[in-house]
Amino acid sequence: MPNSSDQNQSAVLLTGATGYVGGRLIPLLEQQGARLRCLARSPEKLRPLCRSSTEIISGDVLDPVSLHPAVRGIHTAYYLVHLMSGSTDFEKQDRLAATNFAAAARNAGVRRIIYLGGLGDDSDPNLSPHLRSRHEVGTLLQASGTETIELRASMVVGAGSLSFDLVKSLTDRLPVMLCPRWLTTPTQPIAVDDVLAYLLAAKDLPTGESRVFEIGGTDVVTYGGIIREYARQKGLRRWLISVPVLTPYLSSLWLALVTPASFEVGRHLIEGLKNPTVVRDRRALVAFAIRPMGIREAIQKALSQGAN
Length: 308
Ligand SMILES: NC(=O)c1ccc[n+]([C@@H]2O[C@H](COP(=O)([O-])OP(=O)(O)OC[C@H]3O[C@@H](n4cnc5c(N)ncnc54)[C@H](OP(=O)(O)O)[C@@H]3O)[C@@H](O)[C@H]2O)c1
Fold this sequence. Notes:
two-stranded parallel sheet, alpha/beta, Rossmann fold, single chain, binds NADP nicotinamide-adenine-dinucleotide phosphate
């Protein structure tokens, strides 16, 4: 393990930098003066999005050897990766990826890992594979012994967020929607700006034990409620017709027809819509000074940021 003086507090590694959340974190970390290093499978995608002072390193969380130079000298590492788009056996792949990353971080003496995962009740035997896997990744990162701050969120509302884009595409394209039962599932979406504020603030939390924080906007809503609010703000008239027999598999086929999201990722996400994703543990409101916005404002912001 390297000497503690090797780690400069401002040395930050960002994984998932080509993704939706990671991509929005880059300029914020750069503005804060972080000594930023990004890990990417395709570094050329990232170069135009970063300042010249930001180091971009080629790597893959499934390739342990590529992670060693990425974590060297790093104080705080953001883990903003999921492998749902590349693999049908994403649970196994995500397990392997998290194990590789956790081992590399521990061996390099990384002080803190910050991970954005998913809400959902661990004790629910019907938790979807997607949510189960998101929780398992948090557990594996924590088990490495490196202090891990896990933030659990439901839908991130913002232009370009896959889960929000599913709602947007469905509502934009279908005047009449056959609504499976999941439209009444309670959820607590959060605006991307609030997620980014939590991710940044997690870097500056006092050192301590690994912690899990549940984060959400001020409103507990249903997926039907999100669709109605989005339609209202867009001036669209939409009819939601309840069809209790639409299975998750059929729903995903239906989604694949009308949304740009990949069939594979959409299917995994939609399986999770049957599970309530609400904040039950309110410790984040004590540990952080962030006061998240509600669904109305979150959608307004998403529309003003280009989700038209
Ligand atoms: N968006 C939401 O609504 C939401 C809600 C709750 C939680 N979250 C969590 O937030 C995190 C980030 O989500 P996101 O929406 O930003 O996802 P995203 O846009 O789909 O980005 C996923 C990222 O993972 C990277 N990645 C995939 N496989 C990789 C590999 N083998 N090695 C290295 N990088 C790899 C991708 O890189 P490539 O460009 O190379 O593919 C991409 O940068 C995830 O943990 C997700 O579960 C998101």
